[in-house]
């Protein structure tokens, strides 16, 4: 039985998208798990390069797990991602996301740009939907040594040196994807 994990993100300049792709690689390294990369539409205008499809509520409802990512916007998730969640009342009423595992990821232009508060802002709708949140445990060695991104709240990237992920950021994002997929697979196969 295939386990499908939705990797839902918003990315303006590509950094959050790169984290999404690293998490997707981690997800797909777990046998029987598939990553579904999806983004959300702009609220105004068009993004320069949008390569992934727009997420639907049906995909969110059907997923076995969720990884959600946003760049830091003044210490909060980006408005287009928040707008997507503001449209999920029907899923909340039906309890469609209850007990599904989820994690978050973010990127900022500086080390102290608000990664932790942005991660926590993304966790709020997930908690209201009854999802089970997971972060990166300190059993991941790179979490102890990173000088760029990566937090116990979730994967992160500091983009002050460009959109490329550091070795630590990539390793931690992949590990988060593996942890999410492994958990989602165990939960799905237990039912």
Can you walk through the features of this model?
The structure is a single chain. This protein has helices spanning 15-28, 57-62, 79-85, 89-94, 115-128, 141-145, 167-190, and strands at residues 3-9, 33-39, 53-54, 65-71, 101-108, 132-133, 154-158. The protein has 191 residues and is of the alpha/beta class. The chain has a single domain (3-190), classed as Rossmann fold (3-Layer(aba) Sandwich). Strands 1, 2, 3, 4, 5, 6 and 7 form a seven-stranded parallel sheet that branches. Strand 5, helix 5 and strand 6 form a beta-alpha-beta unit. It is globular and about 45 Å long. The model has no long low-confidence stretch (mean pLDDT 94). This is NAD(P)H:quinone oxidoreductase. Pfam families: FMN_red. Its EC number is 1.6.5.2.
Task: Set out the fold topology.
Layout: E1 3-9, H1 15-28, E2 33-39, E3 53-54, H2 57-62, E4 65-71, H3 79-85, H4 89-94, E5 101-108, H5 115-128, E6 132-133, H6 141-145, E7 154-158, H7 167-190
Parallel strand pairs: 1-2, 1-4, 2-3, 4-5, 5-6, 5-7
Helix pairs in contact: 1-7
Family: Belongs to the WrbA family.
GO cellular component, one term: membrane
Domain Flavodoxin-like: 5-181
């Amino acid at each position: 039985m295939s386990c499908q994990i939705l990797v839902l993100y918003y990315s303006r300049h590509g950094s959050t998208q790169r984290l999404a792709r690293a998490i997707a690689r981690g997800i797909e390294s777990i046998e029987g798990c598939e990553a579904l990369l999806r983004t959300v539409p702009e609220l105004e205008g068009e993004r320069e390069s949008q390569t992934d499809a727009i997420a639907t509520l049906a995909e969110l409802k059907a997923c076995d797990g969720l990884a959600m990512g946003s760049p830091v916007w003044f210490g909060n998730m980006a408005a287009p991602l928040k707008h997507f969640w503001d449209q999920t009342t029907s899923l909340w009423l039906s309890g469609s996301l209850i007990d599904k595992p989820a994690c978050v990821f973010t990127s900022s232009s500086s080390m102290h740009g608000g990664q932790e508060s942005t991660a926590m802002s993304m966790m709020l709708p997930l908690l209201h939907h009854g999802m089970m949140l997971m972060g990166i445990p300190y059993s991941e060695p790179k979490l102890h040594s990173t000088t760029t991104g990566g937090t116990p709240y979730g994967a992160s990237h500091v983009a002050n040196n460009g959109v490329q992920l550091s070795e630590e950021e990539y390793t931690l994002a992949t590990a988060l994807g593996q942890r999410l997929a492994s958990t989602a697979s165990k939960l799905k196969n237990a039912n």
